[in-house]
């Protein structure tokens, strides 16, 4: 039995400065490496963490010592946490397989949900989550780090403005040396390299970024077909899943090449957008280059060093709170949106099929 008195003492001491309208946030799972974003988040008045669900007590105690939350906040089940602290929203930080169960527990109670990318472990799970979100009228967002990159927003604007002309090709590269090589926690590594809990290896973990960005760039237009090839270059580290993939998305007048990998020597999340008149290089979160063609191989180049996006678009939890309060309405096919991420899951599902059958997979229009 949890000490509710102790919990609310913590709430008063640590969260007393929060505004009355602060979103009460529950955290479902602690095994995802991105959970530090909420546990280490600076004190703001938009979101207050009120409860955590984690069955691994050793993991919870380790993070409790690292981040200063009391173990009285930690519950064994979502239902127990929801009943005790009545959150307005829940953020999922367990395995990707757990996302469906979170929505199943929260949606009927009107509790909004945000999960880490990708939306779901499979298209089947995604369809069930989508149906629940719509039936119970909740927000269901998917958090991608690249969603708040000011360079991605600038690149999108340049394309929309016609600066580089009509779109022809996009190349998106995401990844790092591999989860074991970069030293992720044992709990994170355990589900990342499990085909059931993660849906695949690098093709899911990093392929989702490119699929998500392309769905945004194409404003919901689906590729006609998806062709994917996977490899396992580190069988000693990733024995059950792929760790390198190439995914080709074919549209009517454009093509995208996604290169998700756990074999990049240097971690990266970059993109190149080619139009008929020029190209935009998104080198990283802050650096962007625009080249306009001149003659055969010449060009004029403009370089940009961009500042962080303004609130609430510089923080996933601030944006989540703003959307819940209806202060922010996401634009069509925004990377956070459910409509985008349902198509993203269709693309990933097709990529998995293609890699398995060694044939291109067509998407239903």
Automatic annotation (TrEMBL):
It comes from the Bacteria. GO terms for molecular function: nucleotide binding. Residues 34-141 form the Gfo/Idh/MocA-like oxidoreductase N-terminal domain. It holds the Pfam family GFO_IDH_MocA_C3. Residues 154-280 form the GFO/IDH/MocA-like oxidoreductase domain. InterPro entries: Gfo/Idh/MocA-like_OxRdtase_N (IPR000683), Gfo/Idh/MocA_Oxidoreductases (IPR051450), GFO_IDH_MocA-like_dom (IPR055170), NAD(P)-bd_dom_sf (IPR036291). PANTHER family: BILIVERDIN REDUCTASE A. This is Gfo/Idh/MocA family oxidoreductase. It comes from Arenibacter aquaticus.
């Amino acid at each position: 039995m949890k000490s509710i008195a102790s919990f609310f003492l913590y709430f008063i001491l640590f969260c007393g400065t929060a505004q009355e309208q602060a979103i009460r946030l529950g955290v479902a799972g602690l095994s995802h490496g991105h959970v530090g974003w909420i546990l280490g988040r600076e004190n703001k008045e938009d979101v207050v963490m009120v409860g955590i669900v984690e069955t691994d007590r050793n993991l919870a105690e380790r993070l409790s010592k690292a981040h200063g939350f009391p173990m009285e906040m930690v519950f064994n089940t979502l239902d127990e946490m929801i009943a005790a602290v009545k959150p307005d929203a829940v953020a999922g930080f367990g395995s990707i397989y757990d996302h469906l169960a979170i929505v199943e527990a929260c949606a009927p109670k009107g509790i909004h949900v945000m999960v880490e990318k990708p939306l779901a472990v499979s298209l089947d799970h995604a369809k069930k989550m989508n149906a629940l979100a719509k039936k119970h009228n909740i927000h269901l967002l998917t958090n991608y780090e690249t969603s708040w990159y000011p360079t991605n927003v600038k690149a999108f604007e340049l394309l929309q403005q016609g600066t580089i002309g009509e779109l022809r090709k996009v190349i998106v590269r995401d990844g790092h040396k591999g989860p074991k090589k970069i030293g992720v926690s044992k709990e994170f590594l355990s589900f990342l390299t499990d085909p059931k809990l993660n849906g695949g290896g690098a093709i899911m973990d990093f392929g989702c970024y490119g699929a998500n960005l392309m769905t945004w760039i194409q404003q919901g237009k689906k590729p006609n077909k998806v062709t994917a090839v996977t490899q396992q270059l580190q069988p000693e580290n990733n024995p059950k899943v792929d760790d390198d993939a190439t995914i080709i998305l074919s549209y009517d007048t454009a093509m995208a090449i996604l290169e998700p990998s756990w074999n990049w020597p240097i971690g990266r999340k970059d993109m190149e957008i080619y139009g008929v008149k020029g190209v935009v290089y998104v080198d990283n979160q802050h650096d962007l280059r625009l080249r306009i063609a001149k003659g055969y191989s010449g060009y004029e180049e403009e370089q940009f060093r961009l500042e962080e996006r303004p609130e609430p678009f510089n923080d996933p939890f601030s944006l989540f709170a703003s959307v819940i309060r209806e202060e922010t309405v996401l634009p069509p096919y925004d990377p956070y949106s459910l409509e985008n991420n349902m198509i993203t899951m269709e693309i990933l599902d097709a990529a998995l099929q293609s890699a398995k059958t060694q044939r291109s997979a067509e998407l239903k229009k």
